[in-house]
Specification:
This protein is an alpha/beta fold. It contains ten helices and 34 strands. Strand 9 and strand 10 form a beta hairpin. The structure holds alpha-L-arabinofuranose. The site of alpha-L-arabinofuranose has 12 residues, from helix 3. Alpha-L-arabinofuranose (AHR) binds next to helix 3.
Length: about 675
């Protein structure tokens, strides 16, 4: 049993414990354990959408660090003075490397006695507008973002930030000053770089601001005439999550879910709008400066800083099984001809070798060179994303997908028979599938109804991974109604754990200033983050995953539409019993609860409760914890008890079994 943190640990019974007549009894048959619950049942799906990756989890603070993001100087602002004679241009004459062809050229005839240079404000965005790919609208939106009054670089006083830059020069014997500054020009930290030569050279410096600012700029300015070429301008906080270059608060929120699975790198992000935009894993490993990056389907460029290795490492750090969504040669709008699939199939085989191969193999050696000689033990490979579903926006039909899927499936199984291949659609009876990925973005009622969806699933069919789901149309920006619908649905997934082996909510992250899709699990800006009620549901369910399902008898419902959704399970080692109850009604529900067939005693139980006053209630930056779980001990509760489930609530009750074998005078609660 996991107790959620932060918790409010009180010994008082909850307000609703004084409720009136019991509406019936829940009976949990503890002596009749059913299906095994997979450790991967509750997972997370990471996709770089809404700035989840670049500008989010990936802690790089400089936007467009390699000057490849656009044909204009995107995210950078030039600085000169009225007496200066200076030219700024994007230059490809002498690239840092062939994957990073563009650098910023600053040709200074006269400094004019003032500052000459550029500044970057990080990932500034504009709220409540949808960004468009490669269009005028994108540029206009971007221009207004640069002028927005907040959300520049967020720096803390006394914390170290690691700066680096690649530079070369011609006829320049001056210095390049690097400073963190407020919008008004107050210098918070400063370093001076000198001795630029004709060849590219990497410079590193540490910046420690003397004052915090959440809307700062990184300024690069030269003090002499001459010509400078700059590239790979980077600023990272020194403290990142597990020193992996990930933003600590965001990574920790992921970790707090205790996911058993990490699906990556997308979604539509991995497919690409067209094949040229596909995520190719080989372009995301190795030297950061040589990762070409890509213009992603969600309307901005990704650096590739979060690459294949980083995702595998993240899964390992989270204690989650990695699931790699491999490209099946089908983008949303164009497909690789069947007879030209070989290099795409080889890419997947090489990816598996990178993850799992011996250090003597070609790709395993590269993994070892990156500091991970031991294999990552990748077990799950999804063959495409949402391909073959016949969606109006693309991804192909069943007949487009099947032959491609089969070609990948056969090749993967031939080389790696133990890999679990995940299909995007039900390929049976035409082709085998180890697991089928189903996606659901529907309204809340659909999810409540779908709590019984898998009760009648034909057990002879393939097992299920619900790889993407969320209440979408009536979920606001993440309201309690959405969370309740999803929680009800999850009771159905857990009850049918023999069929449903994995699940993951989507999308995981959103910066509302760059929002393309809502609702989302975790909302963040440059300084803060909070979980939506849906996030808390994820966390509560994953933190209280039993090992086996227990049968439950419910009192007959007096409502036309059921209002209670229930699942129970057992922790095999400890004998602890876990009951999850979703009450979607506007009224509290007082029920008796009986643990039938129990062998032994329980020493009390823990109650974790998530509830809201109204279905439309949401968390926000100003009230981030308005809807958040509380955990308290219930005293004097054994195998027969009463409990009142509040209106609009998700409740988890855990009975801790007394372990008499381990006692030495005192009772031990396991
Ligand atoms: O989660 C957002 C998107 O929804 C995913 O990229 C895609 O797979 C689905 O259509």
């Amino acid at each position: 049993m996991t107790i959620l943190k932060p918790v409010l640990l009180v010994l008082l019974p909850p307000v609703f414990a004084v409720a009136t007549a019991l509406a019936g009894e829940i009976i949990i048959h503890v002596d009749k354990p059913g299906a095994q619950v997979s450790p991967t049942l509750y997972g997370v799906f990471f996709e770089d959408i809404n700035r989840a990756g670049d500008g989010g989890l990936y802690a790089e603070m400089v936007q467009n660090r390699s000057f490849e993001d656009f044909s204009s100087l995107l995210a950078w602002t030039t600085m000169e003075n009225s007496n200066a004679v200076v030219m700024f241009s994007l230059d490809k004459s002498s690239p840092l490397n062939m994957n990073n062809p563009t650098s910023l050229k600053i040709h200074i005839e006269k400094t004019g006695g003032g500052r000459v240079g550029v500044f970057n404000q990080g990932f500034k965005g504009v709220p409540n507008e949808k960004i468009r790919d490669e269009s005028e609208i994108f540029l206009q939106r971007f221009a207004s973002a640069q002028n927005s009054p907040a959300n520049g670089l967020a720096v803390q006083a006394g914390k170290e930030y690691q700066f680096s830059i690649c530079g070369r020069a011609q006829d320049f014997s001056g210095r390049l000053t690097v400073s963190l500054e407020t919008q008004a020009g107050e210098v918070l930290a400063k370093q001076v770089l000198e001795r630029f030569g004709a060849d590219w050279k990497k410079f590193e410096a540490s910046l420690i601001p003397n004052k915090a600012d959440s809307n700062a700029r990184l300024v690069l300015s030269a003090d002499q005439p001459g010509t400078l070429w700059l590239d790979m301008v980077s600023l990272f906080p020194k403290d990142t999550w597990k020193n992996r270059g990930l933003r600590s608060d965001l990574a920790q929120m992921m970790a707090d879910i205790h996911p058993g699975l990490l699906r990556f790198p997308g979604g539509s992000y991995s497919e690409g709008h067209r094949l040229v935009d596909a995520w190719r894993w080989k372009e995301t490993v190795g030297d950061m400066a040589a990762r070409p990056g890509m213009w992603n389907i969600w309307g901005y460029r990704s650096t590739g800083g979060l690459g294949f290795h980083e995702y595998l490492q993240l899964a390992e750090d989270l204690g989650a099984e990695p699931l790699f969504v491999a490209h099946v040669g089908m983008a949303e709008k164009d497909f690789v001809p069947i007879d030209q699939l070989a290099p795409w199939i080889q890419d997947v085989l090489d990816a598996i070798e990178y993850a799992n191969g011996p250090v003597t193999s070609r790709w395993g050696a590269l993994r070892a060179k990156r500091g991970h000689p031991t294999p990552f033990h990748l077990k799950y490979v999804e063959i495409g994303n949402e391909n073959g579903m016949g969606y109006w926006w693309g991804g192909g039909t069943r007949s487009d997908y099947l032959p491609r899927y089969q070609a990948f499936y056969v090749a993967i199984k031939a080389s790696y028979p133990d890999i679990v291949a995940v299909a995007n659609i039900h390929t049976e009876p035409d082709a085998p599938a180890d697991l089928v990925d189903e996606h659901y973005y529907e309204n809340a009622d659909w999810f409540f109804n779908a709590a019984t969806k898998y009760d009648s699933y034909d057990r002879s069919k393939p097992k299920i991974y619900v790889g993407e789901y969320a209440v979408k149309n009536d979920g606001g920006s993440g309201n309690m109604s959405a969370a309740l619908g999803e929680a009800a649905f999850l009771t159905g997934l857990e009850r049918n754990a023999d069929v449903v082996r994995m699940s993951s909510y989507a999308p995981l992250f959103a910066n509302p200033y760059w929002e393309k899709w809502k609702p989302d699990d975790i909302v963040f800006d440059n300084t803060h983050c909070y979980g939506t009620p849906s996030y808390h549901v994820q966390r509560i369910f994953a933190s209280n995953r039993p090992d086996v399902v227990l049968p439950v008898e419910l009192p007959p419902s007096t409502n036309a539409v059921p209002t209670l959704y229930v699942v129970a399970g057992l922790k095999k080692d400890s004998g602890d019993v876990i009951l999850k109850v979703v009450n979607r009604a506007a009224t509290a529900e007082a029920l008796g609860i009986k643990l039938a067939g129990v062998d032994g005693e329980f020493s009390g139980n823990t109650c974790t409760e998530l509830s809201a006053a109204a279905l439309t209630d949401e968390n926000s930056f100003t009230k981030p914890a308005k809807i958040s779980p509380e955990t308290y001990m219930l005293t004097g509760c054994g195998s027969e008890m009463q409990h009142t489930f509040p209106p609009y609530s998700v409740t988890v009750l855990c009975w801790a079994k007394i372990d008499r074998n381990k006692q030495s005078g005192n009772e031990t609660i396991r």
